[in-house]
TrEMBL record:
Entry protein name: Uncharacterized protein
Organism whose genome encodes this protein: Trypanosoma cruzi (strain CL Brener)
Amino acid sequence: CPNTRNYTSVQPQPTQSAQRAEWLMKHRRHVQGRTRSIASGNAKKSNANGTSNLISKEVRQFLKLFTREVCMTFMDEGFAACAMRRERARAEQPQEVQARGVPLPADVLDSLYSQVVTQLLFQILGWTEKEASRVLQTVVRQIKRCFPPSPNLSPQM
């Protein structure tokens, strides 16, 4: 967020969770824009005893859709958290650096993003540091691709 301090009037600031929820609503990706449900109308008791191809196919379809939704939700959370951390790092820069519009170096951003993603993997999925290290760079790379190019940002990639 740009530094918009106004010392003549103090406005209440929304809480961080409210800001995050608002940000997610604006930026959340919707693959198809509709909710799918598992079709249970054709499943019969006889299918459970004998041929369960229909149930098996439905379960596989559910797992596929569920996995996609969980992945997208995690990436949305990761993107929101990284964007907030990037803005906080910008705000913590010295005033003269902010005035000149000097972008944050890519290695600093990468380090911040890695910290955020590691924390999310631990909090949301309960992963250990070793487990997180296997996917960390890939997730950070994906998150960096989502950021729009901006003259105030350092090059992404």
